[in-house]
Amino acid sequence: MKRFLPLALLCLAPFAPVSAAPANDEALPRPAQLEPDVQFWIRVYSEVSTNEGFIHDQHKLSVIYETLHFDADAPPRERAHRVDAERSRVQEILRHLASGAAAQTDEERHVRDLWGADATPARLAEAVDDVRFQLGQSDRFRAGLQRAAAWDTHIAEVLANLGLPAQIAALPHVESSFDPTAYSKVGAAGLWQFMRSTGRRFLRIDAAVDERLDPFRATEAAAQLLSYNYRLLGSWPLAITAYNHGAEGVRRAREQLGTDDIVRIVREYHSPSFGFASRNFYVSFLAALSIAQNPEKYFGPLERRSESQFHELKLTAPANTEALVRALGIDRTILRSLNPALRPGVWSGQRPVPSGYILRLPGSAANWTAEALAQRTSGPRPVTVAQLAPGRPSASAQSAPLSAAPATATATATAMASPASQVEIVPTPPSPLVADNVNTAASPYYLVQGTDTLASIAARTGVPANKLMALNSLPDSDYLSDGQRLRLAAAVPEPETVTTAATLQTAQAAVVESVEEQRAVAAASQSAERAEPVSAAQAQAEGPELVPDPVGTGSADPVDYSVGADGSIVVVAAETLGHYADWLGVPAARLRALNSLRGHSTVKMGRRVKLEFPHATRAQFEERRRDYHERLQAAYFASHRIAGSEIYIARRGDSLWSITQRNVKLPIWLLQQYNPDLDFSDLRPGTQISLPKVEDVPSL
Question: Which pTM was predicted?
Answer without folding.
Answer: 0.81
